[in-house]
Structure formats: structure tokens, C-alpha cells
């Protein structure tokens, strides 16, 4: 089989104007960005605001292996399959960050015959949205340090500046550093650091704002520091919100591309799935619900992170009502959760699979806690055996959940027809009764406890002494009614990445609490969460190249 990039380069995508026309978008409601990419205008959603919404489907996954289990591939393939069945389906995805592209995972536009195009453009800069986030983030950082240099009228405590600079690259050397060296003309010396751009609160704000006025209001609420007497300092205090919003003007507009089979694909935004909510933009999701009969979207990492945040943060913020969830599993991920080393995942091992399948069972239970019907998609790999597949099929049957072997990677939409047909039947047989996990008016500590105990399986939570002080500060300054964004390892239901499967008898330790007031949530950090990843021993960047004709290779 050809590599992902070879498949993409052999494709003949339709002009984006044809995709636009098929969706009934008017000429004044979009701008071309080349032959195969369009930026959609906010006037389009305004015109369609009274049109009934289509059905909303979330694609999520079990706790993954380090290389991921194919949520994006499944999302793309399911959208293609639904279109083959005559449905007006649209998919909505996050934009790839350059960090993972050059790091461990490589390209992030689907795979095989379930990809979005143009693959190279999407993975490398695309329409510049992430760069705009980087610029807005770093403008705010520059204004903070300029404020210190110009006399510090607000009384900012340099030891309590929480706002970091950012860069859309994996670069561990930038995590902790000292700035302002070089004398009095070079700024005030202080500790600082970088995070990857998709971990910036600016990205989360971009993806939850529903208008330019909402964007500016959210930016104004961003808390960047504390004063010497403990009061929060915001972007509005620094008069930064207007200029930041101006930098994000074009980035606010959703991007339209297409899959290999011409299915419309909205790709917009890409917040980190740990420190933020890990979903594409609310504006793109709303637009897709108006333009199509079915919108298929995804959320980052496993269902314990991505799905929970999609339901409790994004759906609550945007008044969305999901109709179904597709839970992606792989034989290798379940064997990995059963304790099998990565080097042995391609070998049949039924005992390991049976040990690890409890992870799938827990995620099924969790999705049902939100009142959302669930369907399992087994993302097929060539080394899966029929005996292994049957174990998963039997488990799903015991739990009364539909299961489909998805072959969209190797066959495109045709490989997802069974999955698509079962999804359509699920809409009719099991209507959703969506409810968030907790009300906003319950205490922050109780929100964390519900997530940890009901979704992760913890016995209780424990706050470190610093986290307890931070909780008191958050309550004192009016942040109690915000939802909680749990930041923890994606490899385990617990806060310990080595506890695979379905851990029991553990206490989840919350070591730090911060507020993303602009995005509208409190972040609870557990374990060792890095917001600036590092490159692996053999980065994907080492295999990426370009020839004399400008043809790119190595993007998987």
C-alpha cells in the first residue's frame, strides 16, 4: 500500500468552488486560499442561523498507545461512508500543530484512504491560524514585560506572572528560562518559559468564541499575573485585548477543505487536549450543523479527556446536543492496556487483550453517563486476528453496544459502510438524552471529584497544599462557577501513565489549579503535564524532505 502522502499526492481533488457550490454557500460568503482551501465568512452562519441543526456525532477513543488509534482517520472515513449512503455529511477536525508533525506522530490529516486534502498544506502552516494565535499570545507577553519596564503601574509581581510565550514547535529547551538579561535597557530579569502554541489559552479562546465581540471579551478576561497584594491582572488591564483580537481576525473564520472522496471538511482551531479542551472551533461545529444533515467531529486523546471536555465544556458553552458517540478502539491499544509491551503488539495475545478490554468497557460506561448512545468502531490493522476481533465483538454484545470493524484506512468510505449504517440505525433506536456530568453551581472541588470518581474510577481526590491555596484564591475572585478542565496523562484513566486498563483503588492528586478565564474554565493539573513537548529520539522531521520539483515527502 502507498504511504499517506503518496496517496494524497496521487489524488485529484475537486476545485474548492465545487465543494462550496454543493453546500449552497454564496460567492460573498467565502474567500479562496488557493485552489483547494476556502475561508468562510461569519455572514454565512448569520444567514443560516434559523436553519435546523443536523445530527452531531462525536468520535472519541479508548486510552491510546503513544502513536494514537486513528480517531481522525475514523472521522474522515465515517464521513465519506455516510456520503456514499446518500447523507449530506460534513466532518469537522482540528488543525494539525507543527509540533506533532515534526515529532512522534507525523502528519495529522487522517491516513490511508481516509484523509483530508491538501495534505501537505494542512500539515505545514495551512492558512496561518496557529501562527496568528502565536502572534497574539506573544504580543500579550511583550506587553507584560514592557509594562514592567515602563514603571509597573499595576503593581504586577514578576514572580506571579503566569502568562508564557509560545511557539508551534516541540522544543524542550524553552520550557524554563530567564529573560531580561543584558542590562536595564533589555527589560526586567525574571523567570519565564514557552509552551507550544496549541496549549495557549488564546487558542482555546479562539475555539470557543462565537463572534468578534465575544472573542474580544474573552481575550480581555485572560488572567496573566497577580499583583503584589494578590489581585488578578488581566489582558484588559494591559489594554491588550483589542490588538490581540485584530491579529486573530482572519483566524476566526473557519477553513473548508475536502476529503479524498470530496466530503466537505471544516478544519479550524486545535487546542491542546490536556491543558485545554481539545476540540475544533465552536464556530466550525455550528456551521457544519447548519450546512449538513450529519456533522462528524472528534475530540483529542481518549474519551476520559476529549469526550468529557467536549460534553462538559464545549457542548455546555455552545448549547450543543450530541446525538451519538463513536468510540474508536484497536486490538493493539487494548493489548497495550493489558500490559503487553509495544514491541509485541503485532502478535496475537488473547490473555493480554482480555486483561486490557476493561478499558473499553469503562469508556462505554462513561459515555453512557452523559446520556449519549455509543457505537464502537474497531480500527482494523493487518495483524489483527479473527480470534482477537471476536473477543471485542463479544464484549460489545454483552454491553448492548453495536460494534463495527472499520477498514477506512485501506478502503476509504467503502470500508466504513457498515459503521455508517449502524450509526444511522442508532439514531432511530436510541435517542440521546444528553446531560453534563455536573452543574456549574456546584463547588470546584466537587466538580473535580465527580470527574475523578465517576469517570476515572478514583476513590477520591487529594489537593496538594499549593492547590488548596489556589482553590481558595479562585473562589475568592469569583471563578467558582466555571467548568473544570482536567489535565492528566492520556495513557491511563488515572493520573499515573503506568496504570493501564481500568485502575482501581487510587486517589487522584491535583497538584495545581489555574484559571483560563478567557476560555471559561479552571484547569486542574495532575501528574506531570508538559505544555511544551520535546522531540523523540528519532523525530519525524528527520524523514521529511523536498525534491527539486517542490514535491514534499516523509509526511507519513
Layout of strands and helices, then pairs:
Elements: H1 4-10, H2 16-22, E1 30-32, E2 38-40, H3 42-48, E3 55-61, H4 71-84, E4 89-93, H5 98-102, E5 110-111, E6 114-117, H6 119-123, H7 129-149, E7 156-161, E8 165-167, E9 177-179, E10 190-192, E11 194-196, H8 201-208, H9 212-221, E12 223-227, E13 232-234, H10 241-247, E14 255-259, E15 264-267, H11 282-291, E16 294-298, H12 303-318, E17 324-329, H13 331-337, H14 350-369, E18 374-379, H15 386-398, E19 402-406, H16 408-411, H17 417-429, H18 444-456, E20 460-463, H19 465-476, E21 484-487, E22 507-516, E23 521-526, E24 545-546, E25 552-553
Parallel strand pairs: 3-16, 3-17, 4-15, 4-16, 8-11, 17-18, 18-19, 20-22, 21-23
Antiparallel strand pairs: 1-2, 2-14, 5-6, 6-14, 7-12, 9-10, 12-13, 14-15, 22-23, 24-25
Amino acid at each position: 500500500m502507498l504511504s499517506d502522502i503518496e496517496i494524497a499526492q496521487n489524488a485529484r481533488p475537486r476545485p474548492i468552488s465545487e465543494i462550496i457550490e454543493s453546500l449552497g454557500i454564496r460567492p460573498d460568503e467565502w474567500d479562496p486560499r488557493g485552489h483547494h482551501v476556502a475561508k468562510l465568512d461569519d455572514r454565512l452562519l448569520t444567514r443560516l442561523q434559523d436553519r435546523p441543526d443536523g445530527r452531531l456525532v462525536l468520535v472519541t477513543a479508548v486510552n491510546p498507545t503513544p502513536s494514537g488509534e486513528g480517531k481522525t482517520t475514523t472521522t474522515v472515513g465515517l464521513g465519506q461512508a455516510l456520503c456514499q449512503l446518500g447523507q449530506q455529511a460534513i466532518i469537522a477536525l482540528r488543525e494539525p500543530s507543527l509540533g506533532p508533525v515534526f515529532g512522534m506522530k507525523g502528519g495529522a490529516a487522517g491516513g490511508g484512504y481516509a484523509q483530508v486534502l491538501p495534505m501537505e498544506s494542512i500539515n505545514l502552516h495551512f492558512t496561518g491560524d496557529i501562527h496568528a494565535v502565536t502572534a497574539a499570545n506573544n504580543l500579550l507577553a511583550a506587553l507584560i514585560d514592557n509594562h514592567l519596564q515602563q514603571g509597573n503601574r499595576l503593581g504586577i509581581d514578576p514572580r506571579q506572572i503566569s502568562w508564557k510565550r509560545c511557539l508551534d514547535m516541540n522544543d524542550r529547551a524553552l520550557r524554563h528560562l530567564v529573560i531580561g538579561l543584558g542590562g536595564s535597557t533589555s527589560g526586567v530579569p525574571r523567570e519565564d518559559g514557552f509552551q507550544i502554541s496549541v496549549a495557549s489559552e488564546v487558542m482555546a479562546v479562539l475555539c470557543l468564541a462565537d463572534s468578534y465581540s465575544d472573542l474580544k471579551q474573552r481575550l480581555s478576561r485572560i488572567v496573566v499575573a497577580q499583583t503584589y497584594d494578590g489581585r488578578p491582572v488581566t489582558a484588559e488591564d494591559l489594554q491588550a485585548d483589542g490588538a490581540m483580537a485584530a491579529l486573530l481576525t482572519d483566524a476566526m473564520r473557519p477553513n473548508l477543505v475536502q476529503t479524498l472522496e470530496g466530503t466537505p471538511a471544516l478544519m479550524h482551531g486545535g487546542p491542546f487536549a490536556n491543558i485545554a479542551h481539545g476540540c475544533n472551533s465552536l464556530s466550525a461545529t455550528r456551521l457544519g450543523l447548519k450546512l449538513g444533515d450529519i456533522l462528524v467531529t472528534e475530540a483529542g486523546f481518549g474519551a476520559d479527556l476529549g469526550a468529557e471536555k467536549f460534553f462538559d465544556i464545549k457542548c455546555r458553552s455552545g448549547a450543543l446536543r450530541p446525538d451519538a458517540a463513536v468510540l474508536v478502539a484497536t486490538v493493539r491499544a487494548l493489548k497495550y492496556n493489558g500490559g503487553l509491551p509495544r514491541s509485541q503488539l503485532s502478535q496475537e495475545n488473547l490473555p493480554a487483550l482480555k486483561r486490557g478490554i476493561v478499558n473499553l468497557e469503562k469508556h462505554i460506561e462513561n459515555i453512557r453517563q452523559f446520556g449519549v448512545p455509543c457505537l464502537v468502531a474497531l480500527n482494523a490493522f493487518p495483524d489483527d486476528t479473527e480470534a482477537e476481533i471476536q473477543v471485542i465483538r463479544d464484549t460489545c454484545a454483552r454491553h448492548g453496544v453495536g460494534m463495527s470493524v472499520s477498514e477506512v484506512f485501506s478502503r476509504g468510505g467503502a470500508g466504513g459502510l457498515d459503521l455508517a449504517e449502524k450509526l444511522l440505525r442508532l439514531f432511530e433506536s436510541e435517542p440521546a438524552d444528553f446531560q453534563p456530568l455536573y452543574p456549574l453551581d456546584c463547588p470546584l472541588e466537587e466538580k473535580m471529584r465527580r470527574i475523578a470518581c465517576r469517570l476515572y474510577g478514583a476513590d477520591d481526590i487529594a489537593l496538594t497544599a499549593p492547590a488548596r491555596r489556589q482553590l481558595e484564591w479562585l473562589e475568592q475572585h469569583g471563578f467558582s462557577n466555571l467548568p473544570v478542565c482536567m489535565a492528566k496523562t492520556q495513557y491511563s484513566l488515572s493520573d499515573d501513565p503506568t496504570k493501564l486498563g481500568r485502575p482501581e483503588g487510587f486517589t487522584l492528586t491535583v497538584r495545581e489549579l489555574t484559571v483560563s478565564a478567557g476560555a471559561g474554565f479552571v484547569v486542574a493539573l495532575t501528574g506531570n503535564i508538559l505544555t511544551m513537548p520535546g522531540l523523540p529520539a528519532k523525530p519525524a522531521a528527520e524523514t521529511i524532505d523536498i525534491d527539486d520539483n517542490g514535491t514534499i515527502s516523509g509526511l507519513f
